[in-house]
Structure formats: C-alpha cells, structure tokens
Write a structure and sequence with these properties.
Helix content is about 70%, strand content about 0%. It has about 210 residues and is mostly helical. It is globular.
Length: about 210
C-alpha cells in the first residue's frame, strides 16, 4: 500500500514543476532576466542542479517550455487540416485558420496566454528565434500546399518570406491580445475572441495577397 499522501500524489513531478515555474518567471521577467538558480528555487527544488539534471541547460529548459504547449497546438492544427482536406472546396483562408485558430484558443487560459507571450519573446530573441519559429512545423508544411495560391503573384524567392511575415504578424497580435486580457488596467479592452480570430485571419490573408 502506498504511503504517499493525497497532497503528495496531486503535486506535479519535479520536471513539471520546473516547466511551470520557468514559464511563469520567463513571462514575468523576460528570457534574459531569469536564471537557472531562480527557477530552481521558485519551483521548490532543494537540489541546485535540478534544471541541469532534467534539461541540461537553461537554453534547453526554455526550448522545453516552448515545446510543451506547441505539441497540443500541432495536434489541433492537424485535426483542422484533416477536416479541410476532406472537403472538396479547399480554400486558402481555411488553411490560415488552421494555423492561427489553435493559437487563438490558447487565449482562454492563463497558461496559454503566458505561452503566447513567451513565443513572441523567443521569436524576437537572437538566441532562441530558430527554436520558436513555427512556419516549418509539420502542420504548417502540410497547410502550405493550400495557402500557396495566395502568394503565386510574388516572385518565387519572396513567397516563403511573405508567409513568414504573416506568421510573425499573427504571433505579435496574439501576444498583444494576451497582454490586454491579463492587464489590470488595459489601455483598451481586448476584442472578443471570435472577433479577434476572424480579423487576425483576414489580416494574414490580406498580407499574403498584397
């Protein structure tokens, strides 16, 4: 018979505590404003080398924080693409929606909003932007086949560049929306989720067509 208390069984394991703590601290203080020591202490670990044991380095910890939420986003995108590809009428806007909507859905939770802000941080950080880009994930590559007609008017060397700009614009808008939702005194009210999603999709489509 197990001697662990209910509280012990409900407590996240050591690796999860580090991920949760790192996500919160990175969002609050920025990637460069958080040390491995701070994460270890705030997570309740007594072993000062806990981050190194579970992840190897701060860089790998940040990457793991990003990857944890991205896995669910990727799964949701694939589901949406399955539905799109089963339809006879495959519109580029629907493929853009498959890329964007799973991220918009993260706005509904505190953890999701933290992830969106961290994703935007990482995308603009010289040490992490290569690990945070989403344009070459399996779901984005799959959706690109449907989106490609939107940029056929551009020279070939600009097509992927324009698509990356569209994704970057979406990530920036999502981070801003998440800040408005969580701000105690926002400079303006955040848009309703459905209005925000529809406008963001239209904006990305418009940027690709321009």
């Amino acid at each position: 018979m197990s001697t662990r208390s209910a509280a012990d069984r409900a407590r996240p394991d050591g690796r999860t505590r580090l991920l949760d703590t790192a996500e919160e601290l990175l969002d609050r203080h920025g990637i460069d404003g958080v040390s491995v020591r701070a994460v270890t202490k705030a997570s309740g670990h007594r072993n000062s080398s806990a981050v190194n044991y579970h992840f190897g380095s701060k860089e790998q910890l940040v990457t793991a924080v990003l990857a944890r939420r991205q896995a669910a986003v990727e799964q949701r995108r694939m589901q949406m693409l399955d539905t799109l590809e089963s339809s006879r009428d495959r519109q580029p806007r629907e493929a853009i929606a498959a890329a964007v909507v799973p991220l918009v859905e993260l706005l509904a939770s505190v953890e999701g909003r933290r992830y969106l802000r961290l994703l935007h941080q990482a995308a603009n950080h010289p040490g992490y932007y290569r690990r945070s880009i989403t344009e070459y994930s399996p779901s984005i590559i799959r959706g690109w086949r449907v989106v490609a007609p939107l940029v056929e008017h551009l020279p070939e060397e600009l097509r992927h560049h324009r698509f990356r700009l569209g994704i970057g614009m979406a990530v920036a808008a999502l981070a801003e929306q998440s800040r408005l939702i969580d701000a105690p005194d926002p400079p303006r009210p955040p848009l309703a989720a459905d209005v925000f999603a529809a406008d963001l999709i239209d904006a990305v489509v418009g940027a690709l067509r321009a």
